[in-house]
């Protein structure tokens, strides 16, 4: 599908008011998206595990109004009016108006909450933007838009991408690919698709424990971060490497080779940080405790032959990925040896999940 396929035909129904609500999960990238072109087009393919428990729940109450030249909405986070979110949503609305031409005809009350603590440092843009996209699309459906179930998910992902790139990987699960890759049938730069290649038993119900090393505000916004890849001396090599890693991961997922999985996932995480450390301006987003934890994980792996590995977002928190069969042992290791490195000993246990759901 191309962009213009997402522009709807004239609506057939009139709706005065209503409410819609969706829960949408966060996701953790194995091969990272870092660098984009205009219109939220990624420089490379990325692939992620969808999470089960870290979710944003969003309800929109909408009411018809006289069409003006402005968008009209209010945002509430956990019941409190949150005007700080408005500019990002305004930008999102501007980007998607062509695809949802009813946006200026309604007032929207957007009420949102996260199942994970807001101040945890967990990026909520993926879950938040995908939940918002789903709510808006549900309204479009009420207006009579002709959307099959498959096209509904595709368009939700297409819209979510325009809010935040990684959000387009949060609609479905357990594994989602975004970015056209010649070895992944149906993959697109415009939306995420469920990975349909063979996946070995070892990856079923894979676990992710998020160690909250630093709950502070993000040091570098993702927009600034992605921009650092323009004119980055290593950018082109990095984009090529990501494509190669997608091919490699395809085989790893099929074969269930956990040692290869560890090597690829950890290298991807460190490459992401290496890009930030070598851009201009440069950033170090890891904290001393991030490194402490990484070394502990490596020691534990050596001592026990565990298949636990780490990955990182654009921040200091550590995601620990491990097979379900190791859950008991790894959780004990976390509690006794790693919790002390987390702010207020705080960590979140999650696992790979199936995607968004209507509420
Ligand atoms: C490091 O999706 O937050 O998490 O498109 O500017 O909203 P925008 O960026 P965003 O970038 C996330 C980057 C990452 C890696 C990833 O999730 O692939």
The major pleated sheet works out as: 8 strands, mixed
Number of helices: 8
Bound molecules: ligand DP6
Using only C-alpha atoms, the radius of gyration works out to 20 Å
- What would you call the quaternary organization? single chain
Number of strands: 14
Based on helices, strands and strand pairing, what is the structural class? alpha+beta
Silhouette = globular
Straight-line N-to-C gap = 28 Å
Strand proportion:
15-25%
The chain-level mean pLDDT equals 96
Helix and strand string, N-terminal first?
Answer: EEEEEEHEHHEEEHHHHEEHEE
Poorly predicted ranges: none
Explain the layout of strands and helices.
Layout: E1 17-31, E2 36-37, E3 41-42, E4 46-64, E5 72-77, E6 80-81, H1 86-96, E7 106-114, H2 125-142, H3 149-163, E8 175-178, E9 192-194, E10 207-211, H4 222-227, H5 235-255, H6 258-277, H7 288-304, E11 309-312, E12 318-322, H8 327-338, E13 347-351, E14 357-358
Parallel strand pairs: 5-7
Antiparallel strand pairs: 1-4, 1-14, 2-3, 4-7, 4-8, 5-6, 8-9, 10-12, 10-13, 11-12
Helix pairs in contact: 2-3, 5-6
This protein binds ligand DP6.
Q: What is the structure about, briefly put?
A:
The protein is α+β, with helices and mostly antiparallel strands.
Structural notes for this entry:
This protein is α+β, with helices and mostly antiparallel strands and 359 residues long. The chain is built from eight helices and 14 strands. Strands 1, 4, 5, 6, 7, 8, 9 and 14 form an eight-stranded mixed beta sheet that branches. It has a four-stranded antiparallel beta sheet with strand order 11-12-10-13. A two-stranded antiparallel sheet has the order 2-3. Helix 2 (125-142) packs across helix 3 and helix 5 (235-255) runs antiparallel to helix 6 (258-277). The chain starts with 16 loop residues before the first strand and ends with a strand. The model has no long low-confidence stretch (mean pLDDT 96). The structure holds ligand DP6. Residues 29, 32-34, 40, 46, 123, 125, 164-166, 222-223, 226, 272, 313-314 line the site of ligand DP6.
């Amino acid at each position: 599908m191309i962009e213009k396929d997402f522009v709807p035909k004239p609506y057939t129904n009139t709706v005065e008011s209503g409410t819609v609500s969706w829960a949408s999960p966060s996701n953790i990238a194995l091969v990272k998206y870092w660098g984009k072109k205009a219109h939220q087009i990624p420089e490379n393919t990325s692939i992620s595990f969808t999470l089960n428990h870290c979710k944003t729940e969003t309800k929109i109450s909408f009411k018809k109004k006289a069409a003006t030249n402005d968008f009209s909405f209010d945002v509430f986070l956990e019941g409190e009016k949150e005007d700080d979110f408005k500019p990002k949503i305004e930008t999102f609305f501007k980007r998607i108006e062509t695809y949802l031409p009813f946006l200026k005809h309604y007032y929207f009350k957007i009420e949102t909450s996260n199942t994970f603590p807001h101040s945890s440092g967990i990026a909520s843009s993926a879950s938040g933007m995908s939940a918002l996209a789903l709510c808006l699309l549900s309204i479009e459906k009420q207006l009579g838009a002709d959307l099959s179930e498959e096209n509904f998910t595709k368009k939700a992902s297409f819209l979510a991408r325009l809010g935040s790139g990684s959000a387009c990987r949060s609609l479905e699960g357990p594994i989602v690919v975004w970015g056209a890759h010649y070895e992944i049938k149906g993959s697109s730069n415009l939306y995420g698709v469920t990975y349909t290649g063979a996946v070995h038993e070892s990856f079923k119900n894979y676990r992710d424990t998020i160690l909250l090393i630093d709950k502070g505000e993000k040091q570098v916004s993702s927009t600034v971060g992605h921009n650092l890849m323009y004119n980055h001396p290593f950018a082109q090599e990095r984009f090529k490497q990501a494509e190669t890693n997608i091919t490699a991961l395809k085989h790893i997922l099929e074969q269930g080779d956990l040692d290869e999985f560890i090597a690829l996932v950890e290298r991807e995480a460190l490459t992401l940080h290496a890009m930030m450390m070598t851009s201009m301006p440069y950033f170090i987003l890891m904290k001393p405790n991030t490194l402490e934890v990484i070394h502990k994980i490596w020691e534990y792996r050596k001592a026990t032959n565990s298949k636990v590995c780490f990955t990182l977002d654009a921040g200091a928190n550590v995601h620990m990925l491990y097979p379900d069969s190791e859950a008991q042992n790894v959780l004990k290791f976390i509690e006794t040896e790693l919790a002390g490195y987390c702010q207020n000993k705080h960590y979140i246990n999650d696992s790979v999940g199936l995607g968004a759901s209507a509420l």
